[in-house]
Amino acid sequence: MRTLVWGKTFIRALRRVLRKHPAFENDIEETLRLLQENPFASPLATHKLKGKLTGSWACSAGMDIRIVFDFIKRTDRQEDDILLLEIGAHDEVY
């Protein structure tokens, strides 16, 4: 199982999203659990990003919520860690 590394920007954005949309909390928790188990699980719709976010990845956490993340190489383990960068509505994170 991969380790999720919570970036400071992600934590602030998560608080903002949950303040605006407290009903999304369960969807976000489920998405983070799936991301940790298998970042390419089909419900996540994980995809590479282009443009200013080239090199990063994004997945869906419900209707209009997206999570932006990077893979971090680990020399001591086979699986990469996941650095959580941003969360928010589609137009906010892209």
Protein architecture, described:
The structure is a single chain. By secondary structure, the chain is of the alpha+beta class. Helices cover 32% and strands 28% of the residues. It is built from three helices and five strands. The protein has helices at residues 8-20, 25-37, 90-93, and strands spanning 4-6, 47-48, 57-60, 65-72, 81-89. It has a five-stranded mixed beta sheet with strand order 1-5-4-3-2. The longest helix has 13 residues, at 8-20. It is globular and about 40 Å long. The N and C termini lie far apart (28 Å). The model has no long low-confidence stretch (mean pLDDT 94).
Query: Which assembly state applies to the chains in this document?
Result: single chain
Rg, alpha carbons: 13 Å
Overall body shape? globular
Mean of all residue-level pLDDT scores: 94
Strand content: 25-35%
Number of helices: 3
Counted beta strands: 5
Helix fraction by DSSP (H/I, runs of at least 4): 25-40%
**Biggest beta sheet attributes:** 5 strands, mixed
Which structural category do the helix and sheet elements fall into?
alpha+beta
Spatial order of strands in the largest sheet: 1-5-4-3-2
Unreliable residue runs? none
Order of helical and strand elements: EHHEEEEH
End-to-end separation? 28 Å
Summarize the structure.
The chain has 94 residues and is an alpha+beta fold. The protein contains 3 helices and 5 strands, in the order E-H-H-E-E-E-E-H.
Key attributes of the depicted protein:
single chain; 94 residues; alpha+beta; 5-stranded mixed beta sheet; 3 helices; 5 strands; 32% helix; 28% strand; globular
